Amino acid sequence: MSASSAKEVLKLNDVSVSFGGLKAVSQFGISLHESELCGLIGPNGAGKTTVFNLITGVYLPDSGTMDLDGQNLCGLPPHEITKAGIARTFQNIRLYKELTVLENVLVSYHMRKPYGYVDALLRTRQYYAKEHELKEHALRLLSVVGLKNNPDDFAGSLSYGDQRRLEIARALATSPKVLLLDEPGAGLNSGEKVELMKVVSKIRDQFKVTILVIEHDMKFVMGICERILVLDHGELIAEGTPKQIQSNPKVIEAYLGVADA
Amino acid sequence: MADTHSLFFGDQDGLKTPWQILGFALLVLLLMGASALIENNVNPYVQRIIVNCGIGIILGLSLNLVNGCAGQFSLGHAGFMAVGAYVSAYLTTVLMPFGAFFQSDLGVGTAVVAGGLAAGLSGYVVGLPSLRLRGDYLAIVTLGFGEIIRIVFLNISAVGGPRGLPGIPLASNFFWVYLWAIVTFAIIYRLIHSSAGRAILSIREDEISSQSMGVDVSHYKVVAFVISAFFAGVAGGLFAHYQGFIDPNTFNFNRSVEVVIMVVIGGMGSLSGAVIGAVLVTMLPELLRFFAEYRMVIFSGLLVLVMLLRPMGIFGRHEIWEASWFANLKRKPKP
Ligand SMILES: Nc1ncnc2c1ncn2[C@@H]1O[C@H](COP(=O)(O)OP(=O)(O)OP(=O)(O)O)[C@@H](O)[C@H]1O
Ligand SMILES: [Mg+2]
Hints:
The structure holds two protein chains of two kinds.
Chain A: E1 8-19, E2 22-33, E3 37-41, H1 48-55, E4 63-68, E5 71-72, H2 78-84, E6 86-88, H3 101-106, H4 117-122, H5 125-144, H6 160-172, E7 178-182, H7 190-207, E8 210-214, H8 218-224, E9 227-232, E10 235-240, H9 242-246, H10 249-256
Parallel strand pairs in A: 3-8, 3-9, 6-7, 7-8
Antiparallel strand pairs in A: 1-2, 1-4, 4-5, 9-10
Helix pairs in contact in A: 5-6
Chain B: H1 4-9, H2 17-41, H3 44-69, H4 77-95, H5 105-127, H6 135-154, H7 174-192, H8 195-205, H9 207-212, H10 217-243, H11 253-266, H12 271-287, H13 295-309, H14 324-330
Helix pairs in contact in B: 2-7, 3-7, 3-10, 3-11, 3-12, 4-5, 4-6, 4-10, 5-10, 7-10, 8-10, 11-12
Bound molecules: adenosine-5'-triphosphate (ATP) and magnesium ion.
């Protein structure tokens, strides 16, 4: 274990998966600590998104173990994994386009069953109280990511950058222990990226959530992550602080290629 | 304070239960008045169309929950209607275990609900394949289920087989049909505007996101199917006790398609759209009787025209009171 004495939250051991003949991820292992901000980098096709899909139950690993706070995650369906405390965003934005911004966030509260069918159909006091409470909470999350101005717009009508923010708010609404962000800065201009870096750091500080972020922009990763994991051809080739990673020959090789025959 | 909108939909702070009950009682009285008025002043042919509109509204609203809200394309709605019609008619016509009871209004009401429950159960069975199938494949499977249900009734001699089941007590009327239509609307509206309803909508929008945000997608697909089938069964029961006679052919594939058209014309996911779609699809063929044999050609032409002008249906995914021209009536523009 590193110098950090914080509690271990998410632990993956020897996780592998292959698609046909392609070993997309092989013997991958990580251990994330409480409220750590960790980066996952690697060239295109390295298997980063596949790691997220394994953690969130979209793919079942061929081998290996994954657990969250001691709870085994392997074999759980995605919604159970979310309930256990892992939330994610998607590289190719997947919002509920024809629901409003606010509704996009509200969906995430459903797994905790705020009230029952009877409350909904009879519109009991409980229904109004809970709906009110959830809306307030959702609006607070939206303002954290900088989206408080247009809660009633359709998600599909938002600008690209705002859609990425909304994805983060929606994931946060599940009250995760671990938040997985898949290229949250993709397609944003440099100004928006600086904003986003602030938002991500703020979320970690404010919610004490562990964040694993995939990002190609090195300024972004080096700027906010305490620790960086480097993936290449499905294998973890390096791990360390931004400084260590920057000067690691294996990493430079993976990104720039080697000049041998 | 209790304007009609908040009576029906509740407002920000909520209507206290006594007000809700009072509102409902008021509605029932109003409906009774309308019923008496129509039964005494409107000619039987028009009455029949009005009642059929009401049954269509229940069918359209219920199918809309699966096709429009959950985004699962079901093509077997007539099958659920058949289950409701046959089960309720069997109770009131063939079985009659409690003699006079099933002849009374309360008895018929009970039979109709029983028909709905039986249909809900069959909805559970049809909902299961929807967990694995989507799009065209699901449409084909539900179509198959609808036909299987029809053929099962075709072969049960206890309910008349191909000859049909005559002599069903004529207990259903304008009042009961529209009371159920309002109840269906209110229940589905309130469901959709609740936490569970948002979960259902999120499945339509993006199943992968939905499950990743903790929604048990399989569970809510089945929930949508069961509720939808329940109301289709109720519509079937009301229909049986209005016609006095049912046969398997009444619930064939054409009937399923008719309901799909109601939903598509009105706008998938729009409750008021389903209502207007149901009224259009029921009334237009009657209004076009003037054109004799060209009637269905013109009807189809009109449907094509609507789809060309409004590919998302008349109201798209929205409700009539959200449409801009309507909203403008209520709201003064901001300065
Ligand atoms: N469902 C799948 N079936 C087959 N192959 C897949 C599947 N998912 C991913 N792959 C393959 O696995 C490899 C890793 O893909 P992955 O999406 O994880 O890469 P990535 O590191 O996220 O890349 P990028 O930076 O481009 O997003 C790729 O070669 C990809 O084609
Ligand atoms: Mg990726």
